[in-house]
Write a structure and sequence with these properties.
Strand order of the largest sheet: 5-16-15-12-13
Strand content: 15-25%
Helix content: 25-40%
Structural class: alpha+beta
Number of helices: 14
Number of strands: 20
Largest sheet: 5 strands, mixed
Length: 434
């Protein structure tokens, strides 16, 4: 019986129903052991592998928290003294994701980003001062264009400020012009905002397999003298989100709709996994309305994997595959034992998972298209775009002025838009897990 230690927070464990999936591992010859990070792992082992989600602990440890530092030493110390134990994922690789600026720099070395012009990372720059003039210069030198997304430098966990733990990694802002750069909170990464028709693609990676799930996202936005918008990404991009920033308006309808290349999204997931040396990650991707390029905007370690059916089956299979590979490569170890017999037919599970996720994506896309159609019917035939703004704190829209002609003129103005949307109704997302 192989032994796999794991540590994730209680909140995440309950969300994933981790304990309820123990039989999936036990039937494959794996004993799951929940780690106690307050104690040395040598007293709890031996372990053939350790699976973890310790981004919050890493963030606190790097910020000087003594307890968190001891937890990390317990994990890394065991891995260093037991090279036969696989650590999924390496702590050094996980740590690189904590700093968004370093994360983006690493993405720039990804083979697909370097060789395929269809895949990009939006221009970005690190801002460390509140000096407006200096920030204007840095943005210009980096080629970052307005509107910009201002993201905390810390991409995971919490930050200690004045003895109060504040969760900041998901709190972001949209700044529309140089006149509002005083709203920048540092340290941060400023990144060009790309219009993407309020659709985000989550590329989940489990070992050598990729799964693409569609999510809501920010509506199309344009530069101008607008007030800064502050928002929480967990509210805007969660499944089934109905946030004001998800709403499609007249300007958004005019942008061309893009049918995603699901195979390219999967290739992107595999490429990022190699570049980051990580096997359990989630990648946020948007498709630029104008250039139709695939833009990588964020990477998360051990995400929630919402929308990935049979996640624990895929995790189990990956762990077993890694163990077999390690056994075959280790010439000093005994001959590999026969693979354990699975109670579940893997091929059937794979096809079932693919069909379920494809159906989910298809339903999500139909909902998005239906929502766009409904929004288009509500759009006035002309809109004063210089007035009005959305406050993410209040979730209200204000200051908008509209004028309309006859119903016939309104219908005529909308017809090209509706025709384009109707022509896209046959888009059916497909899933091609590898």
């Amino acid at each position: 019986m192989k032994r796999v230690g794991y540590w994730i927070s209680e909140k995440k464990s309950k969300k994933l129903n981790f304990e309820e999936h123990r039989p999936i591992f036990r039937n494959a010859g794996i004993e799951l052991v929940k780690l106690d990070l307050t104690q040395p792992l040598d007293n709890q082992g031996p372990f053939d592998a350790i699976v973890h989600k310790v981004t919050d602990i890493l963030a606190k440890a790097d910020n000087g928290n003594a307890t968190s530092q001891q937890y990390i030493r317990n994990i890394q110390g065991y891995a260093d003294s037991h090279p036969e134990c696989m650590l999924l994922d390496p702590l050094d690789s996980t740590r690189r994701l904590l700093d968004r600026y370093k994360q983006y720099q690493q993405v720039c070395t990804c083979d697909l980003v370097c060789t395929d012009p269809r895949v990009i990372i939006p221009t970005f720059v690190e801002l460390t001062t509140t000096d407006v003039e200096q920030n204007k210069m840095k943005l210009a030198e980096a080629g970052v264009t307005f509107p910009i997304v201002v993201k905390p430098i810390l991409s995971h966990g919490s930050r200690l400020a004045h003895e109060v733990i504040r969760s900041l990694s998901h709190e972001m802002a949209i700044i529309f012009s140089k006149d509002h750069l005083q709203d920048v909170e540092v340290p941060c990464v400023a990144q060009s905002f790309l219009n993407h028709n309020a659709i985000l693609y989550k590329v989940f990676v489990v070992g050598s397999r990729q799964f693409v799930v569609q999510r809501p996202s920010l509506k199309n936005l344009y530069p101008g003298n607008h007030a800064t918008i502050f928002f929480d990404t967990q509210e805007v991009s969660k499944p089934g989100s109905a946030h004001p920033l998800n709403e499609i308006d007249a300007a958004s309808i005019q942008e061309p709709l893009v049918k995603p290349d699901w195979q390219l999204l999967e290739q992107l997931g595999a490429s990022i996994s190699r570049a980051m040396d990580m096997c359990l990650i989630g990648i946020d991707v948007i498709i630029d309305c104008q250039t139709q390029q695939y833009a990588i905007i964020d990477i998360n370690s051990f995400p929630g994997f919402e929308g990935v059916d049979d996640f624990f089956v895929h995790l189990r299979d990956h762990i077993l595959q890694q163990m077999r590979t390690k056994d075959n490569c280790d010439t000093t170890s005994p001959a590999p034992q026969p693979a354990p017999t699975f109670n579940t037919n893997t091929t059937t599970v794979t096809k079932t998972a693919a069909a379920k996720t494809a159906a989910t994506n298809a339903a999500n896309l139909k909902v998005s298209q239906k929502f766009i159609l409904e929004q288009s019917r509500l759009i006035d035939c002309s809109t004063d775009n210089t007035a009005g703004s959305v406050s993410l704190k209040s979730g209200k829209r204000s200051g908008s002025k509209n004028s309309c002609g006859s119903k016939e003129e309104e219908a005529a103005a909308k017809e090209p838009i509706l025709a384009q949307l109707r022509s896209n109704n046959n888009l059916s997302p497909d899933l091609h897990p590898h």
